[in-house]
Amino acid sequence: MAEAAAVIGKTIKVKGEVTGAGNLVVEGELEGRVELDHLVIEPTGNVTATIEVDHLTVHGKASGNIEASRKVEVKATATVFGDVRAPSVVIEEGAVFRGRVQMDVGIDEGV
Amino acid sequence: MAKTIIGNTIVIEGSIEGEPAVTVHGTVKGKISSAAEVNLEKTADVEAEVEADILQVAGKLRGKVAARQKVAIAAEGKMVGDIRAPRILIADGAQFKGNIDME
Q: Which residue does chain B place closest to A98, by CA atoms?
């Protein structure tokens, strides 16, 4: 994994807005809004937020509206509640997901 | 085990029900309900309500899906519709638009 610009540790709770460039790794709790390049939610991480990123990887818990310009990966250990919008969404076996998925690829015409 | 295969030159409008395993290479419009497994292969073009233990989508599917065990959308799969299943897998490259509900 690329070097993280920021890490929110296991015992840390952040409430508010996190914006900027680079990668953010969340091992703790984050509540509010996130806008950056790559957000990684580790198995211990719990994010309740409006998320706007290029790339989101979830191993832990995420809830809220999620918009990624590139990709969303919901890993086997993840729990995700909310609406996801991204050109590519991958959900691994074992993940728990409830919500809408919208891949903007014009599949209405193609299906 | 009795097995139903719908070839890629076949078009079915209506419903396929009660078969333990259904594999579709062709076109189905209507309803598919199986006690076991439904496989929609790469050439499949299905517009239907689908009910099964396990559903695998490698072709095109438009419709509402309820699986008792698992729904898997393969990398080549394209689906528009709502899914209800305890386990759901969407592979990298798959296209999907709809609601997901895992109980």
A: B101
In this structure, what token pair is assigned to residue A28?
A: 């703790």
Q: Do B96 and A93 touch (CB under 8 A)?
A: no
A107:B99 CB<8 A: no
The DSSP 8-state label assigned to residue B93 in this structure reads T
Please give the ipTM for the structure prediction. 0.74
Q: Domains of chain A: which residue ranges? A: 8-102
State pTM to two decimals.
Answer: 0.84
Given a contact cutoff of 8 angstroms between Cβ atoms, the answer to whether B41 and B60 are in contact is no
Predicted confidence (pLDDT) per residue in A21-68, tens digit: 889 999 999 999 999 999 999 999 999 999 999 999 999 999 999 999
